[in-house]
């Protein structure tokens, strides 16, 4: 995955975490749940990209 795409995913992940906290503060549990899912998926994508980069670097 390109560096630019990873930066965008990182940005979306960070914003989702911040918006999750805001949703919790205004007592919107469903929105908080959805934002948490987005943040977790973003973290998974970034982690998988990092591990696949390490594998390709070792080959």
Largest sheet: none
Q: Give the structural class.
A: mainly alpha
Strand content: under 5%
Helix share of residues? over 70%
Q: Estimate nothing, just give the exact number of structural domains.
A: 1
Shape by Cα distribution? elongated
Topology (elements, then pairings):
Blueprint (H helix, E strand, L loop, with lengths): L2 H23 L3 H30 L1
Short description:
90% of the residues lie in helices and 0% in strands. α1 (3-25) runs antiparallel to α2 (29-58). With 59 residues, the protein is mostly helical.
Can you describe this structure?
The chain is built from 2 helices and no strands. The protein is mainly alpha-helical and 59 residues long. It has one domain. The protein starts with a helix and ends with a helix.
Descriptive keywords:
mainly alpha, 2 helices, 59 residues
């Amino acid at each position: 995955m390109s560096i630019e795409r990873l930066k965008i995913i990182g940005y979306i992940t960070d914003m989702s975490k911040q918006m999750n906290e805001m949703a919790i503060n205004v007592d919107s549990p469903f929105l908080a749940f959805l934002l948490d899912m987005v943040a977790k998926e973003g973290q998974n994508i970034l982690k998988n990209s990092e591990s696949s980069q390490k594998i390709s670097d070792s080959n």
